[in-house]
Amino acid sequence: MSDVDPRLVAAIDHLQRAALELIAAARSALDVAEDLARDPAPLQAMVEGVLATFAPAKDEPDPEEPTDARPRARVQRIRVD
User: Fold this and answer.
1) Could you give the CA distance from residue 60 to residue 74 in angstroms, rounded to a whole number?
2) Mind giving me the DSSP string for 61-77?
3) CA–CA separation, 3 vs 5, rounded Å?
4) Which of 15, 24, 50, 54 shows the smallest number of beta carbons within 10 Å?
């Protein structure tokens, strides 16, 4: 019988524990995904809250909105002679 390098045994042990941790993390993520698929209301409320945080206030003008009735051109053409 040949001697097995203890470093190899330790490496395999670490890899095995890491694989089990990844499996546990995947199970947890799947549990959350299943809960959200069954009842998406918490996720929807969170997204609405985040959007409300970044949306401009109603009394503030949107800097991207044109001030006159004409829509702003999205492409600026520059002539090169």
Assistant:
1) 23
2) PPTTS-SSSSPPPS---
3) 6
4) 54
13-39 confidence digits (pLDDT tens): 999 999 999 999 999 999 999 999 999
Residue indicated by tokens 């042990």: 13
Q: What is the identity of the amino acid at 22?
A: L
Angle, CA of 76, 73 and 58, to the nearest 5°:
130
Residue 81 pLDDT grade (very low, low, confident, very high; cuts 50, 70, 90):
confident
pTM: 0.51
The whole-angstrom separation of Cα 8 and Cα 14 is 10
Q: Residue type for 3, please?
A: D
CB 77 within 8 A of CB 70: no
Distance CA 56, CA 80 (A): 38
**The dihedral sign for the CA sequence 20, 23, 29, 34:** negative
